[in-house]
Write a structure and sequence with these properties.
3-stranded antiparallel sheet, 21% strand, alpha/beta, Rossmann fold
């Protein structure tokens, strides 16, 4: 919590000063009572001393003063609010290595399920697009609030071929640039890149990452799979061979670092779901300060009224 007018916090010094004066007055009252009657006769003179009730209203008044001082300082809290103008592109690798079953039921199926959950979880105002790629870009959907159009791209992912990460990133950047041109302003944007292998085709993904950095578009990367993941690939002349397909975590981490995004690793379907939940909160919202002075002012009034009511009820007067 922060304060827009912190100088008013000096008013809190009134509270300990008032407490000191009150304790001094109570000490004087006890001395006056002792002078009026000896301790042995006090039970006859005042058979029912108020005890703790005498101090309860003053405690409420002190809390009311403190709450009022905090209200004057205009307290603020930071909350996450939906970013209605933002656009996010889901860039998904559908290369042959996505057939690996080290992530159940397979890397591709886990990616599809997590992407659908992402679409269901982000605010409806968020514009979401999609790019699917293997050794070339295979499907494109411009940012839209129509979740069905994006879902159609996700549902039609089929694993085959190599990996052209740079092509997928460049295509996503092109979509966001065209969106900015249509809107005649550059709204907040981000790219979520899910891949499981080293780029083997097309342009250098780091070159695309540097362009994204210049455009201030963060790329959040997800390295899907385990280092021991394998697929069975066909070879010339017939037959198949088992090939290891570890995720290229180093490159994905560099892409995220250069673009000021964040790199994630997901070695199972549960971890991938968690990653997408975190991404939903990061790319679909923005931090905003909200003033909460009214709450403290209301608290001050409530404590002040409470102290007055107790004084009237117990002592038939206000202090």
């Amino acid at each position: 919590m922060s304060f827009a007018a912190p100088l008013f916090l000096l008013a809190l010094l009134v509270v300990p000063a008032a407490v000191a004066l009150y304790m001094r007055s109570q000490s004087g009252r006890r001395r006056a009572a002792a002078a009026f009657a000896s301790p042995a006769l006090m039970s006859s003179v005042a058979p029912r001393p108020p005890g703790w009730r005498r101090h309860a209203p003053m405690v409420l008044y002190a809390v009311a003063v403190a709450a009022g001082a905090l209200a004057l300082a205009r307290p603020e809290t930071t909350v996450a609010v939906p970013e209605e103008r933002a656009s996010v592109i889901l860039v998904t690798d559908q290369s042959g290595s996505m057939d690996a079953t080290d992530v159940e039921p397979s890397r591709l199926r886990a990616a599809q399920t997590a992407a659908r959950d992402f679409l269901d979880g982000v605010p409806k105002e968020l514009r979401v697009g999609a790019v699917a790629f293997n050794h070339a870009v295979r499907a494109i959907q411009s940012p839209t609030t129509d979740r069905q159009e994006v879902r159609a791209v996700i549902d039609h992912l089929r694993s085959s071929g190599g990996t052209a990460t740079g092509e997928g990133l460049s295509t996503a950047l092109g979509l966001l640039e065209r969106q900015a041109a249509r809107d005649r302003r550059r709204a907040p944007a981000a790219i979520v890149l899910l891949s499981d292998g080293e780029s083997t085709h097309g342009r250098d993904p780091m070159a695309a990452a540097r362009i994204a950095a210049r455009l201030k578009i963060p790329v959040y990367t997800v390295a899907l799979g385990t280092p021991d993941g394998t697929i069975r690939a066909r070879v010339r002349g017939g037959g198949t061979v088992v090939r290891r397909v570890p995720p290229d975590r180093a490159t994905l981490e560099r892409i995220a670092s250069v673009t000021r995004g964040r790199a994630f690793e997901a070695e199972d379907a549960g971890a991938l779901d968690t990653v997408y939940e975190q991404l939903g909160s990061q790319v679909a919202t923005r931090p905003e300060k909200r003033e909460i002075s009214a709450a403290f002012a209301a608290g001050a009034i409530a404590f002040l009224a409470g102290g007055g009511l107790l004084s009237v009820r117990w002592f038939a007067r206000l202090p």
